[in-house]
Amino acid sequence: MLKISNLHVTIAGETILNGLDLEIAAGEVHAIMGPNGSGKSTLAAVLSGREGYEVTEGSIEYFGEDLTALEPEERAWRGVFLAFQYPVEIPGVTNMEFLRASVDALRAHRGEAATSAVDFMKLARATCKQVGLDTDFLKRGVNEGFSGGEKKRNELLQMLLLEPKLAVLDETDSGLDIDALGVVADGVNTLRSAERAIILITHYQRLLNHIVPDRVHVLSGGRIIRSGGKELALELEEKGYGWLTEAAA
Amino acid sequence: MSETANQKRDVDGDTAIDRHLEREYEAGWVTDIESDTLPPGLDEDVVRFISAKKNEPEWMTEWRLEAYRHWLTMDHPKWAHVHYPKIDFNSISYFSAPRSQEDRPKSLDEVDPELLRTYEKLGIPLHEQEMLAGVAVDAVFDSVSVATTFRSKLAESGVIFCSISEALQDYPELVRKYMGSIVPYRDNYFAALNSAVFSDGSFVYIPEGVRCPMELSTYFRINAENTGQFERTLIIAEEGSHVSYLEGCTAPQRDENQLHAAVVELVAHKNAKIKYSTVQNWYPGDSEGRGGIYNFVTKRGLCAGERSHISWTQVETGSAITWKYPSVILRGDDSVGEFYSVALARGRQQADTGTKMIHLGKNTRSTIISKGISAVRAENSYRGLVRISPSADGARNFTQCDSLLIGDRCGAHTFPYIESRNPTATVEHEATTSKVSDDQLFLCRQRGLDPEKAVSMIVNGFCKDVFRELPMEFAVEAGKLLEISLEGAVG
Ligand SMILES: Nc1ncnc2c1ncn2[C@@H]1O[C@H](COP(=O)(O)OP(=O)(O)O)[C@@H](O)[C@H]1O
Ligand SMILES: [Mg+2]
Questions:
Q1: Are the CB atoms for B368 and B401 separated by under 8 Å?
Q2: Under a CB-based contact definition with an 8 Å cutoff, are residues B321 and B291 in contact?
Q3: Nearest neighbour of A102 by CB, restricted to B438, B448, B462
Q4: Reduced to 3 DSSP states, what percent helix, strand and coil does chain A have, rounded to the nearest 5?
């Protein structure tokens, strides 16, 4: 489904990703771990098409298509979803209208009719409950005045409603209490299916107790320096990154 | 554009034209003056000519002349944050009959395609597009039946809604009592000019205790066409009455008169409420700003009685230059003044708008919510005055003034003036300037919205507090209008 080969990315002339290779098949969940500043969010940004990131070498293939040639919304239409590390506020635009506009935009590009207001309302409310948000959050501005944890739950809400094919969660578990962590895990597990791939960017083994990944990768210095099974996360928890980054240097 | 506002091409062409001619006659056109259009230029004879054409009472003619003489002593205002070439007032014709068929575009093919695209997006029917663009067609008239039904319903409740010209014939004493009482011709340069040469406009009178049974829209006024560049509106709400008045239309209107200088006067007596909503979308000019309308408007309301209430809501998206400060004089104790404004300027547009709240009575309250949006290379200024006079014990004002920038080359400016001469008054002012951020835009796009949809959604969110104040159908249209106005503003 996703094949990243020898990816080099610069921001303002500075190389951030430096020969990254990663392949993910449908149905898989991959965890990406790594020290701060190693380029994890950069990878998420490049996958979702954020401006300001230049791919200087390498390629990203998504269902055989060159992902880098597509605009951010075109990627979204094809099922690419990013749960942001730092969700931004959009004052005055209610969560409800935002969600519905998004869902309808994606449906339109699949040739499906727009949702009915009533059906969508029901679905949105049910999903709110699923992620542990009061339905009042649908009436509030997008992330407007939400706490850190509420913003993360809101990202999950969006993910569940948009039903992406490739979901990238950038530290969605950071700063969450145990209950919220369970919600994130449940959300991801709900989504997990044979047609979907999920990339979990995380610092914590504790999330991986709830979501068992197929592969775990360590990103450091802009490339993947070690890959393994779920045991790798346990090992990292115990030893930190030092032993790997030193070996790679 | 509402359903009922649809213009009808009359199948029965001849009789329709007859009716149209009759209507012109009723409106006070006199036949004993030969010419229908004056050559450019302004002097006392021109003022007299206009007044005579309209068969006005002598006091009206005199008042116009006084205004004209006063105007001659005044200077063009320079304080607004707008730039335009000096207007040559002698190059303007101050009286013209409805445009002759020959002067008009022969068909929509001759009209600015940009304008047509916008009409299409707003879903305006073809025949209505022709009317708005001023195309010469056989007979495009107000739907007479709609207007008639409308009028008879109003008449049942005693509401008067007609053109100023008609009011001068039918209710001269009412007009005489109020015209110029709120906006005297001495008020400012453009008010003086308007008072001298006003072409036509609306007159509304709501009798004591009457709640106007429907929203009054300029769209329904007979003779709505060709009120010209110097429009004058007068609304009087007697004790305990209510009225909601809608001015304008979301469809961009073209007019070959570049200068528009309107005057609007509102009077609310004890316990009366006037809600005045405007959607202004005059032609802003082409991408270089050529051909756009200069819109210099003086709007003022007097809360004359206790607990009276005047509310101005405006959505300003058109015109090359907008210069407009709807104001409220809060004279009655416990009276309330409100100003809710969205002003969008894009391309080369310049908007200088705001309000004045003059607190005279005790415990008077005013609220100002202003949302300014600047895109591309536009300049948008908010200019507001809150004056609390010594007599206004316990007066309160709250002002919130937000600016939103789209792009790096546009500007937003805020000029709040607060004059408080009463220590018991409270005046609060909040101001913010924000940009449509890359992060917001990216979030929207990541969720599948194209950039234009994303910007319009963000901007609509920014304007929510004002749109909430608009009558329902206007609010929906205003949202759509912003979306269309912002096209091409990103990327
Ligand atoms: N917009 C930017 N401009 C310049 N440098 C950036 C920018 N964004 C990220 N970086 C740098 O790129 C590196 C990787 O950042 P990031 O991908 O956010 O790391 P991670 O998510 O793994 O903590 C860091 O050194 C960071 O400072
Ligand atoms: Mg990060």
A1: yes
A2: no
A3: B448
A4: 40, 30, 30
**A175, A184 in Cβ contact below 8 A?**
no
CA distance A50 to chain B (A): 7
Sign of CA dihedral B433, B439, B443, B446: positive
Which distant-in-sequence residues (6+ apart) come within 8 Å of A62 by Cβ?
A1, A2, A3, A75, A78, A80, A166
B433's tokens? 């300037």
* Encoded amino acid at B267, one letter: V
Q: How many domains does chain A contain in total?
A: 1
| Distance from residue A38's CA to the centre of ligand 2 (Å) | 8
The reported pLDDT for the residue numbered B105 is 66
- Assign residue A181 the CATH number of its domain: 3.40.50.300
Most confident range, picked from B86-95, B173-182, B338-347: B173-182
Q: Closest Cα of chain B to A163: distance in Å? A: 11
Residues B43-58, mean pLDDT to the nearest whole number: 91
Per-residue pLDDT at B223: 34
When pLDDT is cut at 50, 70 and 90, the band that residue B308 belongs to is: very high
* Residue B389: CB atoms within 10 Å: 18
Closest to B325 measured CA to CA, from B188, B229, B478? B188
Distance between CA atoms of B123 and B111, rounded to whole angstroms? 17
pTM tops 0.95: no
CA B213 / ligand 2 centre spacing (Å): 60
Residue A199, token pair as written in the block: 């990339």
**Structural domain range at position A39:** 2-248
In angstroms, rounded to a whole number, what is the distance separating the alpha carbons of residues B137 and B131?
8
Counting as low any pLDDT under 70, the low residues of chain A are 248-249
Which is nearest to B376 in space by CA: B353, B349, B340, B402?
B349
